[in-house]
């Protein structure tokens, strides 16, 4: 294990963490502001990945594929908000969980009906298919650098939106004290619709960007939902800043666990034991991180209602 390998894994963890942030930011806004537990958020991520893969295949334009994926997913989310989610705002969390879990099942069946049960192969953009020589001895995939750049750009844009615009002020007011915001004349329904669409757009963007490096398949939304929930719990529900910091922590810890734990265990344990124990411990690393953070800060790192 040398410094180049460690640096490469650091970049991998940064890229994964930034993609987690795109998903978790929308989820934490929806939960923190609307007080709505939306388990179907992962299905929006899946929709973005499927649409982007198909449009990229048909048009050969990755930029167009990403734009269409975001637009289609936001349109679907707008319809979903009007027909279903809006009716859940004043219901308890159990009802919200059951209803949005039903949406997951419907979404999986809809994807199966439209694209079939076989996973899709999403190709990397031709211009970004090769590596970039970062420095001597470290050629790094250029597409993964795009993910890091896109994630940082969206994080900056979201920070400016939340902290330097009137819309952001309304969003922060709703996250801090929903009743007071309503009292002050904020059109809560419009803010809710905007937040839900924004979250859907971020999830679709993450799905479209992750499609070339992950399996585009039914159920991918449920798989990504678990680490996204871990991120918002660590960061503090409703906090975009917390989601950003927590996503980077989870991305780095998860990547480091998978890269370094198995070889470290092989050095001190029999190979058969290390082969079983390494992946298991790596898989629970982010949960151990969550437990450690919650022990010290039960409301998360940067709670919106702190």
Could you walk me through the main structural features you see in this protein, from its secondary elements to its overall organization?
This protein is mainly alpha-helical and 306 residues long. The protein is built from twelve helices and two strands, in the order ααααββαααααααα. The protein has a two-stranded antiparallel ribbon. β1 and β2 form a beta hairpin. α1 packs across α6 and α9 packs across α10. It is globular. The mean pLDDT is 86.
The largest pleated sheet is described as: 2 strands, antiparallel
Strand-residue proportion: under 5%
| Total count of helical runs of at least 4 residues | 12
Order of helices and strands: HHHHEEHHHHHHHH
Shape annotation: globular
- For this structure, the quaternary state is single chain
The averaged pLDDT comes out at 86
User: N- to C-terminal separation?
Assistant: 42 Å
The strand line-up of the biggest sheet is 1-2
| Rg from alpha-carbon coordinates | 20 Å
Count of DSSP strands:
2
- Runs in which pLDDT lies below 50 for 5 or more consecutive residues are none
Helical coverage, percent range: over 70%
**Which structural class best describes the helix and strand composition?**
mainly alpha
Summarize the structure.
With 306 residues, this protein is mainly α.
Summarize the helices and strands and which ones pair or pack.
Blueprint: H1 3-34, H2 41-59, H3 62-83, H4 93-115, E1 131-135, E2 138-141, H5 142-164, H6 166-176, H7 178-183, H8 188-210, H9 220-235, H10 240-266, H11 271-283, H12 285-296
Antiparallel strand pairs: 1-2
Helix pairs in contact: 1-5, 1-6, 1-8, 1-9, 1-10, 2-3, 2-4, 2-8, 2-9, 3-8, 5-6, 9-10, 9-12, 10-11
């Amino acid at each position: 294990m040398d410094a180049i390998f460690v640096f490469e894994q650091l970049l991998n963890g940064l890229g994964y963490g930034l993609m987690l942030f795109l998903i978790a930011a929308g989820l934490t806004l929806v939960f923190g502001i609307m007080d709505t537990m939306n388990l179907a958020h992962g299905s929006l991520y899946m929709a973005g990945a499927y649409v982007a893969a198909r449009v990229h295949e048909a048009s050969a334009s990755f930029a167009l594929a990403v734009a269409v994926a975001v637009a289609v997913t936001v349109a679907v989310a707008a319809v979903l908000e009007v027909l279903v989610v809006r009716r859940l705002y004043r219901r308890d969390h159990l009802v919200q969980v059951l209803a949005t879990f039903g949406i997951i099942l419907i979404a999986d069946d809809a994807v199966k009906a439209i694209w079939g049960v076989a996973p899709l192969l999403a190709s990397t953009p031709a211009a970004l298919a090769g590596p970039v020589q970062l420095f001597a001895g470290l050629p790094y995939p250029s597409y993964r650098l795009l993910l890091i750049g896109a994630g940082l750009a969206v994080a900056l844009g979201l920070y400016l939106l939340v902290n330097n615009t009137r819309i952001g002020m309304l969003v922060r007011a709703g996250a801090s004290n929903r009743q007071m915001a309503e009292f002050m004349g904020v059109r809560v329904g419009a803010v809710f619709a905007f937040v839900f669409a924004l979250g859907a757009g971020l999830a679709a963007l993450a799905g479209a960007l992750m499609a070339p490096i992950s399996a585009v398949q039914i159920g991918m939304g449920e798989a990504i939902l678990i680490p996204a929930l871990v991120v918002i719990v660590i960061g503090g529900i409703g906090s975009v800043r917390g989601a950003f910091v927590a996503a980077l922590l989870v991305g780095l810890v998860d990547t480091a666990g998978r890269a370094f734990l198995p070889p470290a265990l092989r050095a001190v344990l029999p190979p058969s034991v290390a082969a079983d124990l390494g992946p298991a411990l790596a898989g629970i690393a982010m949960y151990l991180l969550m437990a450690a953070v919650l022990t010290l800060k039960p409301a998360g790192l940067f709670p919106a209602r702190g």
